[in-house]
Write a structure and sequence with these properties.
Layout: H1 2-56, H2 59-68, H3 74-103, H4 107-117, H5 120-124, H6 128-133, H7 137-158, H8 167-190, H9 203-234, H10 237-253, H11 255-274, H12 276-313, H13 320-346, H14 350-369, H15 376-399, H16 407-428, H17 434-452, H18 456-466
Helix pairs in contact: 1-3, 1-4, 1-7, 1-9, 1-10, 1-11, 2-3, 3-4, 3-9, 4-8, 7-8, 9-10, 9-14, 9-15, 10-13, 11-12, 11-13, 12-13, 12-16, 12-17, 13-15, 14-15, 16-17
Amino acid sequence: MKTLAINILSIGSADISSRLIGLIAITYLARILGPENIGILSIGMAIFTYASIISTMGLPSIGVRSISTRKSSTTHLVKQIITARCFLSTFSFVLGLGIIMFWVPNQNIRNICILYLFSLFPSALMLEWLFQGYSKMKTLAIGRSLGMITYLLIIIGIVSNSQDIYWVPFAWCAGLFVQAVYLWISYKIYCTPDNYSEQHLDLFKIIKEGLPIGISGLISHSVIQFPIIYLGFFSTAENTGIFSVAFRFVIFLLVLDRVFYAIFFPTISKTYKDSIEKLEKHIIWSLKIVTNVSLFVAVILFMMGGDIISIIFGSQYHDSILIFKILLFYFILTFNNSVFTFTLIGIEKEHLYTKSISFGAALFILIFLLPISLPPTIIVAIALAVNEGASMIMMVYYLRKSISINFISRIFLPLSVYLIFSLHNYLFKSYFSTHTTIIIIFSTLFAIAISTGINRNDINTLKYYIK
């Protein structure tokens, strides 16, 4: 348990610091460059994300699972995955370059997108999956922090006006390169050579193995990045920037999701190998903790959203406030979906995860086809929440076939409490005094805790893991 506590502290501090540095960077850029240029950078990052999904193709998850279950030689696995990722990165770069040159007419956006694509190559050399599989979270923490600090220092040192926008993708690439170099040095120091005999590198075999997870990631991240692309092509760069600011803040909050992934995904794989009963207990406890944390955070930020957006990013991003409050639903559902996602992948049912997010993606697309008379920034925020909600319903449906858990009481009842709170607050907040607002917040938090069924034993278990 001491090792787990160190891992939680390490990966938690790393993710919080890297997300915080990222938030500082976007705050600085938002004030220096303005909404329009932030929109251009967001489009470039979205294109890079699409390309990186192809270059990754589920291989890191395969690596984590193989390392945590000791399925193969570490040396051979590293060589195999890195070679496959370099091959896929080259393919993705060429494909992305062709699409950008053909489909992006704006020269400024085109140049930014191309510069971001160069980050594919340092990304291909990343060994985060290796250290995650070995639960060496301290190494991951240092690597991520070094990369983000490099990114921030270059931005603050060079970017001072809109003419310096091209340095931003360069800074991102440099940060990834520094992180990759550190992880490789750590690999050479800490990972002792195993009994590795030269084996044939069957790249297409391991790519095929990671394909189900890769396709799932492609669908999932395509949905996440689509709003930026949609607003960039069918709205304005300024609206893209307005949405991006709210979305980036939510992404910062999802550091909690990343901590859960890094710590509990390997644990789920190991627990499943022991017995289904242990897995059920682990899932129930995880749902209680994750649901309470996500809803508690959302309740507080829903009340403070307007002040936070204005203070951090400036009054020019006032239109981001309502978008942020809608995206809090996306935050809650994404965080809770982590439990179901990692369970399906951990028990080697990736195809059911793919089916679930495909259903969510279908409803996501349907939102854009409906004749809704709302601003495009609001539509995309609603579509993201609907996508996560639909995916959750399908994953719960599949898991109930093999795991005896009452998901209705664990998830949907607490979500109903938050929905009532948010609608009530949005419609009647102007009638509340400060004292009344505080009472409503504490009453809502208490109702959420009661509805999730969390008890003293669950809290003691959490303390036991942390100690």
